[in-house]
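Protein details
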Amino acid sequence: MKKILGYSDKISVRPGDTISFMVSSEEGADYQARIVRVIHGDTSPEGPGYKEEAIATSVDGTYEGRRQEVLAGSYIVVPDHRLFGTLSSFTLQAMVWPTLPGKGAQTLIARQDAASGSGVSLGINEEGCLSVTLGDGKGGSETLSSGKAMVAREWYLAAVTFDAESGRLALLQEPQTDYAETDDRASVETTTALRPGNPGAPLTMAAHIVESLGKRYRTAGNFNGKIDSPALSAGVLDRTQMQQVLDGQIADADQARVLARWDFSQGITTKQIHDASPNRIDGEIVNMPARAMKGYNWSGREMCWRHRPGHYGAIHFHDDDLHDCGWEVDFRLTVPAGMKSGVYAAHVAVGDQEDFIPFVVKPALGAKKAKAVFLVPTASYMAYANEHMPTDAPLAELLTGQLPVLNQNDVFLMENRHYGASCYDVHADGSGVCYSSRLRPILNMRPKYQSWLGGAGSSLWQFNADLHITDWLEAKGFEFDCITDEDLHYEGLEVLDGYQVLLTGSHPEYWSPEMWDALEAFKKGGGRLMYLGANGWYWKIAYHESEPGVMEIRRGEGGIRGWAAEPGEYYTSFTGAYSGLWRRNGRPPQVMAGTGFSAQGFDISSYFRRQPDAENPRAAFIMEGIEEEIIGDFGLIGGGAAGLELDRADRLLGTPPNALVLASSEDHTDIYLVVLEEILINYPGLGGQENPLVRADIVFYETAAGGAVFSASSIAWAGSLSHNGYDNNVSRMTENVLRRFLDETPF
C-alpha cells in the first residue's frame, strides 16, 4: 500500500502565483513537505544519479495527515426543482445502450433519498433486466423487473409509468433491433398500494446519491453505457406519446405534461446538460463522461457531430471515469519572487515512503528571459497518466522482449483503478479512454519512477526521461527557462516571445492545433527548434474550453494505439475538430521537424552511422569535434542513442528539400517494427533486421526566416547525453547545435 500521494491544482505557475497541493495520507499519518527543484530523476547507478535542489519556502514543515477519498464514476446531477414535488403520476423514459448489463445493479435515472428510500429509481438489476423501485420514505418499497436480460451494446427504449390513482406501475423494455432467438422485449405491470414519497433530492442519471459530501456526492449503482434523450413527464404516457416526446414532436395539449426533456446534443463542449422543455431544468455532468457519442438514431450519413448534432445525443458513462478528485487543500505555495524557471516538485513523505507532485515555474511577467526555453510536454504526460498497460496489455512482454517489472506505483494503480486511467487504457466496459485529467495523483509522472516501457537499462519514459535533458542543460551551464504544453496552448505565440531556441522533450507526442500553430509561427519568425526526441507531433488533441487540466484524444484511423474510436466518433467533444493522427489531418510531423514516426521497439537501443550529408559545409558546425563514424553506441536507455521510437526523413511526407540527413540508425532488433500507418498490405520483413524504414535520421535544415531545425529523431537520444561525464559525441553534437542556435546570426 502506498502511504502518501497527492496532486496540485496547476501544472505551471509564475512568481507571485499561488499553487495548491492536495495530499492523502493513509491511516492519517502526519507527513513532511518541502519544495525541491528536480534536476535529474534517473536513479540508475550507471548515470549521474538522482539530483535535486531543496528550496526553502513557507511550505517546509510537518502537516497533519488525513485520508482523502477518490469518488470515481461519471453521472449527471439535476438540482431539485419545485416541479418535482408536484409529481404523483409520472412517466420516466430514456434511450439506453448498456455495455455491462449484469455487472451489478446500475442506475439509469433516480430521484431518491438514500437514507429513507423515498422516491423512484429506474435502473438495471443484477440480472441485467430493466427494473424500477418506488419508496414511500416510511420503510415501504415496491420493485418491478422486466424479467428479460438486456443485450450489451444494443439500444433500448426504457420507460416506467406510474398512475397514482390506480396504483398501476408499468415497465417498458423495447429493443430497437430485433434478433432471432433473442428474448429481450418486455412490457410488464403490477398494482401497488404504495405511493412514492417526495425525497427533496436532486435527480441523477447514471448513478444514485448515497451521501452528500459538501460540493461532492458519494454515489452507487454507476451505469456503464450510453443514455440518450431522457425525459420526465407528469401523468401516464402511452407508447405513441413517448415517441412524440423522444422526437420532440409533442402535441400542444401535451406540452405542459412534459416537465423535462434533456437534450444531450446541446452544449456538447460544456459540462452543462440542457433541458429542451420550457421549464429549463438543466443539470451538470460529473467526472467527464464521454460526449459527442453516437445516439440511438445515428445513421452513419454524417461523421461529424457538429453537422448533425441531433444524431449525437448520447453520453457514454463509465463507473471508472474520473475528472477531479476534489480533495481538500493541504498546503499552498505562493511562488517567491526570483524563483528561477524550471521543473519543481512538492516532496511529501511519511517515514520511508514519499511522493513527488511536479509543477513548472515559468519566468515572471516582465522578467528577463533566457534565450532558450524547454517545452515540458505535459499533454503527453497526461495521455500516459496512470497507464495500466503492463498489467492489462496482453502484448506487453512481446513489445519489450522482456518481462515487465512492476514497481510500487504500478502495483498500487493496478489495485486502485479508481485513480483513473490513461488514454492508452480501456474502461471496464472495453471502450477507449478518450479523456485524461491532471487533477488527480499521476503516479508515473514522478522522478525516480522506472517504466516498463523504457527499454533495457534505465527504463525511463516521458517525465523522468525528459529530466535527462534538463540535467544536461544544467551540467553544461546553459541558461534556460521552462514552459508547459498548456502554456503554449492557452497563451500561443506570446509565451514564446523573446526566446530564440525551443527545445522539446524526448517524446512530445500530443499536440493541439493551438500548440502547433504557435510553434509554426515561432519557426516562421526565425525561431530555432531543437527536437530532442521522437514520435513528436503525432496525435491531435483538444483541451477543454472551460475546464483547465483536461485533454481529449479520439484515436481515429491509423496510428499505434491501444484502442480505436468507433466510426462516427472521430471528432472531439471539446472542440468538434477531427482528431486522430496529425498525419491524417494533413500535417505529418515531417512538416514541423523534418522527420516523423517510422518505427518502434522497446528492448535495446542501437546507434547512428554518419551519412554523406555530414560532410556538407552547412553542417560543419554540428559535426565539429566529431570524427567518429558511429554516433551514440552508448546510453542509459537501452544502451544506445537510437531507440524506443524512431523518426525518419521523408520528402513525400513534408521533409523540406533543403534538409540534410547527417546520420541514420541501423541494426535494430526485430522487436522494432514499422509503424502501422506505413503498412498498406501486411507482409513479412517489417522488423529491424530487414526493413529500411526501421531507422532514425538525424536531420538539420534552415528556415526561410533565418532560423533552423535540428532533429535527433530518437527517444533514447537524451539518455546518452550524460555518458562519460557528459563527454561524448551525442553530447558534443547537441552542444554544438545549441551554441550555434543561441547565436543570433541568421542562418
User: Anything to note?
Assistant: The chain has a mean pLDDT of 95. The longest strand covers residues 31-40. Residues 729-742 form the longest helix (14 residues). The radius of gyration is 28 Å.
